[in-house]
Amino acid sequence: MALGLLGAASSAGAQRLGGAPDAGISIMRIIAALVVCVAAAFGLILIVRARAGRPLAALRLPISLDARRIVLVESQRLSPHGDVHLVRCNGTEYLLLCGPGGSEVLESRPTDPVANDDGSIPV
């Protein structure tokens, strides 16, 4: 029995690494598969970012599609249960106090007018 195992081991050792016949896959097929995989990964990144609310973030385009009416100007935590937020909406700024009991408007005022290029304030 020991001789049979030695004979099997010597025949297995006779095959050399790389001694198999060619698989027949061209380099162009390999490159095309790589391009398809990279394009699919890039497409998935765009889909995930679009669902997260940033559709053009992956492309880093300098286009601003930001036509929001409500803008959070500043936010400050006062305690573990209370926050103060400064929000701008339709030309008015609101100072909001938010806590576990709800939200309350502390102050509201119109925003400052935008100055012209020469520094003067339009009337």
Please tell me about this protein's structure:
The protein has 123 residues and is an alpha+beta fold. Among the domains are: 26-64; 70-110. The chain is 30% helix and 28% strand. The chain has helices at 2-13, 27-51; strands at residues 70-79, 82-89, 92-99, 102-110. A four-stranded antiparallel β-sheet has the order 1-2-3-4, with no helix packed on it. Strand 1 and strand 2 (82-89) form a beta hairpin.
Give the rounded overall mean pLDDT.
77
Shape: elongated
* H/E series: HHEEEE
Radius of gyration over all CA atoms, rounded: 33 Å
| Helix content percent band | 25-40%
Strand order of the largest sheet: 1-2-3-4
Helices, strands, pairings?
Blueprint (H helix, E strand, L loop, with lengths): L1 H12 L13 H25 L18 E10 L2 E8 L2 E8 L2 E9 L13
Structure at a glance:
With 123 residues, the chain is α+β, with helices and mostly antiparallel strands. Helices cover 30% and strands 28% of the residues.
Task: Describe the structure using short key phrases.
alpha+beta, 123 residues
